[in-house]
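Entry 12.
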Amino acid sequence: MRIIAGSAKGRKLQSPIGDDVRPTTDIVKEAVFSILQFELEGARFLDAFAGSGQMGLEALSRGAGQSWFIDSSRRSMQIIRKNIGICGFPAEKAVTVSMDTLRFLSSTDEHFDMVFLDPPYRKGLLQQALTAAAGIVSTGGCIICEHPADETLPELAEDFILKKNYRYGTIVISLYRRSVPEKEC
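Predicted 3D structure (tokens):
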């Protein structure tokens, strides 16, 4: 596992060992950042269910202004902090929060331009997280979900609409954007 592009390109990252963590593949990671490439500069990125932190670190490497890493696992948080050090990002740009992700999403006053959701598969967490994340996304921001191809997500999540699904083998990336009401005449 490595950083693909940007200021930390080529840095090898560590990953927690075990069945609870399933790192995003390079193909899927590249696809996510191709989707976000023109919106990333200076953005606030939230890597929810962060695992190794690779998505938030990739965002920082490619120009995000700040990445937040949320995970409830103590081991994952140790790995994330180590990976932040490997990449050389300062603490003010790489914020770590050791907390249940659903609790964070429903209780924080922070807002983000991009929220990446990749919870453990088939545990019922993604739809809950999607609904909770809708409340913390800035105007013009987006929610990106990584999930198995056999899991169908809703067309709407609060005031966010499913804009597109991108399939990569057994993995799907679902992109949500805030629905914009039509202008009154």
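Annotation: Residues 74-87 form the longest helix (14 residues). The chain has one domain: 26-160+169-178.
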